[in-house]
Write a structure and sequence with these properties.
This protein is mainly alpha-helical. It contains nine helices and no strands. Helix 1 (24-60) packs across helix 7, helix 1 (24-60) packs parallel to helix 9 (202-229) and helix 8 runs antiparallel to helix 9.
Length: 234
């Protein structure tokens, strides 16, 4: 294997080999699985937490809404997101589970703000008032009448957040704060490749292409969902 170290693209190894002679294509595919796992888990957990907390706060209103928006939202949004991510991951230590936990802690706020804003608009509509007049409980109104009507913007946000989560994982792994070796990560592969930027540029080029295409794909998916779910296009 070591005799193939830093070897450029060949028929046997289309993306070349890294400094240890490992096939870069295989590591990119394994890194894609890691990135998708991080992105999907972070979006799912932060989406559920954000929609429930932000949506319920917006529906109930009063002191609960004030506490969530003034204290929680403002506290987490007062600092740049990337700095909070680095600080929290550095405090927790590297590792896949710790990385996911740190991103969920910081990212649920975006879903919560979106859900709260949507709930504030939906809860004043006539069908919600009609359900309330018929004696439906707040929990029933929230689950059966409000949540289904705020799911569209949440899906769009989830697609865009998926791209951001993949990029965040790569950034933190590039800094040595994310996925730990020997588990492949696109960010860690870029970090390894920067030491061979001139003698083995393929170590940087192919992981970069994979990362860019993945992020762009999820962003385009978010734009397509926005256009498809736009009521004016129905």
């Amino acid at each position: 294997m070591l005799q193939d170290r830093l070897q450029g693209p060949t028929w046997q190894h289309p993306f070349g080999n890294d400094e240890l002679g490992r096939d870069i294509l295989s590591r990119i595919l394994l890194g894609a699985r890691v990135s998708m796992r991080v992105g999907a888990t972070v979006v799912l957990l932060s989406g559920i937490a954000g929609v429930l907390i932000g949506g319920f706060a917006g529906y109930v209103g009063g002191k609960l809404d004030t506490f969530v928006t003034v204290v929680v939202f403002n506290s987490l949004l007062a600092f740049p997101g990337i700095l909070l991510q680095i600080a929290l991951v550095a405090f927790l230590g590297p590792g896949l589970d710790r990385l996911i936990f740190a991103l969920v802690i910081l990212w649920w706020v975006g879903f919560a703000r979106l859900a709260r804003g949507q709930v504030l608009k939906v809860k004043t509509l006539e069908f919600v008032e009609a359900a309330r007049a018929l004696g439906a409980s707040n929990l029933r109104i929230f689950i059966r009448h409000i949540l289904p009507n705020i799911i569209q913007p949440v899906l769009i946000q989830a697609s865009i957040a998926m791209a951001a989560a993949v990029l965040a994982e790569a950034s933190l792994s590039f800094l040595g704060l994310g996925i730990t070796p020997p588990t492949p990560s696109w960010g860690a592969m870029l970090n390894d490749g920067r030491n061979h930027l001139f003698d083995a540029p393929h170590m940087v080029v192919f992981p970069s292409i994979a990362l860019v295409l993945t992020v762009l794909s999820f962003n385009f998916l978010g734009d397509a969902l926005r256009d498809w779910l736009d009521p004016r296009n129905l």
